[in-house]
Each structure stands twice: as C-alpha cells, then as structure tokens.
Amino acid sequence: MPTTRRQFLGLAGGVTAAGTIPIVTLRPIEATPAMLNTAIRNVVGEAQIRSGRVKLDIPPLVENGNTVPMTVSVASPMTTDDHVKSIHVFNEKNPQPNIGNFYLGPFSGRAQVSTRIRLADTQKVVAIAHLSDDTFWQVAADVVVTLAACTEETN
Asked: What is the pLDDT of residues 75-101, one digit of tens each?
C-alpha cells in the first residue's frame, strides 16, 4: 500500500519535532572544593604549584556577583626565554569551576589579563600562571558576595 500524503507529513513532523528537543545535561547547581581541585589538576597535572609571582586584583567585597572586575598579572620579563604561557582562573562555588583560560606568549607585551566575572556566592577565586620553564604559580583571594549571580529564583 503506498504511503499517503497525510502519513508522510505526520512522519516528517514527528522526525522534525524529535530533532528539536534539546539534550539536557544535568550538572550540580554549585561546584564543590573537590571539583575545584579536580579542575586545577586537569590543568597542572601532577606538577607542584608554588605561591608568589602572581597578583590577583579583585574586590574583597562585591555587592552584585553578576559583574565582578578582576585583573591577574604575573611578574615576568616576557622574553623568549622567560615568559608566561597561560593564566588560568578558577572558583570554588560556581556551576563550572574553571572561569577562564588565557594563553600568552613572549610577544604579548606584559603578562596581564583583565575581565569581569560572575560569582554565584561568597567564595575563593584562584589564579594559576604557567611559565615557560613549566612551573606553575598561584594566588588565591576570598570574595564576599552580597547579591549572588549564576542562580535562578523559582516561585
């Protein structure tokens, strides 16, 4: 029996509707310190992380977590032999612990990045710099957020 026009349109509509249904991935609402450590280890591997050489300028108290200014700078001459390869920023309680990865080279001028971030709650922010000699340097700062971002209210 041949396919009728009505059957064909019904089948085509069903396939189209099935193709538009988004695939939902469930994630935890906020990260945990264990997720922070895992995210850091994914970047640095088993390398030792030293303190110093990195400066994190972020306000210790912010009224609104939707837009928090942040600047990360690294003490480096930025020469071919001694430069910053990358700067990685992590947080403790946002849904995704890795805020950003910034890749630099000897011709970047200076080892500094500035941006605005969202913070879901009062938490620790960690900046890690990867230098050309394959060493990792870090700094951490605690930020108190009075009005959280990255959350949705349900009624």
From this structure: 999 999 999 999 999 999 888 899 999
Residue 26 token pair: 């469930």
**Tokens representing residue 3 in the block:** 């396919």
Q: Which residues pair with 49 in a beta bridge?
A: 136
Question: How many angstroms separate the Cα of 134 from the Cα of each of 46, 54, 88, 100, 128?
Answer: 12, 15, 14, 19, 12
d(CA 64, CA 150): 11
Cα(155)–Cα(153) distance, integer angstroms: 7
**Which residues are paired to 128 by β-bridges?**
88, 138
In whole angstroms, give the CA distance from residue 116 to residue 10.
49
Token pair in block for residue 34: 């264990």
Q: Alpha-carbon distance 24 to 20, whole Å?
A: 12
